Amino acid sequence: xxxxxxxxxxxxxxxNIDAREPGPDEVQVQIERGGICGSDLHYFNHGGFGTVRxxxxxxxxxxxxxxxxxxxxxxxxxxxxxxxxxxxxxxCGNCEYCYQxxxxxxxxxxxxxxxxxxxxxxxAFRQTLIAHENQCIVADSLTAAEAAMAEPLAVVIHAARQxxxxxxxxxxxxxxxxxxxxxxxxxxxxxxQQVIATDISAAPLKTALAIGALDAINVGDSLDAKKLDAxxxxxxxxxxxxxxxxVAAALAQAIPMIKPRGVxxxxxxxxxxxxxxxxxxxxxxxxxGSFRFHEEFAVGVSxxxxxxxxxxxxxxxxxxxxxxxxxxxxxxxxxxxxxxxLDLSV
Length: 346
Description:
This protein is α/β, with parallel strands linked by helices. It contains twelve helices and 20 strands. It has two domains: 2-149 and 311-343, Medium-chain alcohol dehydrogenases, catalytic domain (Quinone Oxidoreductase, Chain A, domain 1), CATH 3.90.180.10; 154-289, Rossmann fold (3-Layer(aba) Sandwich), CATH 3.40.50.720.
């Protein structure tokens, strides 16, 4: 079968790889859609991020959905021909953190398309994937494109849980890529009174307004950015901040707008950041990390199936597998695209 393999920065190839049959508790999925994530773009553009580097060829991708083609003899929860969203998260279930119920911190995590360990964990941008039964969530009422959005939605639902109570809160979202836009949707669905969004590009800010943001401010435009001054008055305006850029400047700009005892949830990953610790201390602001997800994956599928939110405005482009490089170039241009997906169907 064919797969999309990263060899180095700017070097991805569509290659033949070996296929295998599912084991007793495994499911064979014919992949139909795969979403290109920020981490995939780091591998494509830079060969990795932070200290994480490609050390061997690695199949990319972890946001996928597809049709079940066969199941192992012990599989009970899914059956052939069902559409499933496939969670890329495969915790061991036997370590200290798995026993504590925080499986996303598993000592022995195997997460599709990750160069953190060596040998690398091969990804899911392939025509056929073998997954464990508990990774597969039936999504028959969704399109394959919607089902492939379950992973980024799960990331954001986990971030909202880190923020805790959002009912009646004023929320700031910095960065309006797919994750930031999903933060707007989830915050509003979770009871936020209002959401204000910022970005450096006009195009994603239009989408932010379309999906419910009260205001969308272009911080790359000095005149538009002056709107932020009003939010910094009287020690701040926002109760909760979802920081989705991973850029230190975005966090520093936001802190004057956060009320005393407000909460910052750091969602974006962009390498180490210098923090204005004295400002955080003086305003007693809590800063909480948010990393991956576990049970939120099934929750995200359920939310989409129950029409609690509509992710389709975020899916802007779809490319065939043989157009992989073109797809990654488009996904790298935040002024022209939001979520770019690959059609991996046979």
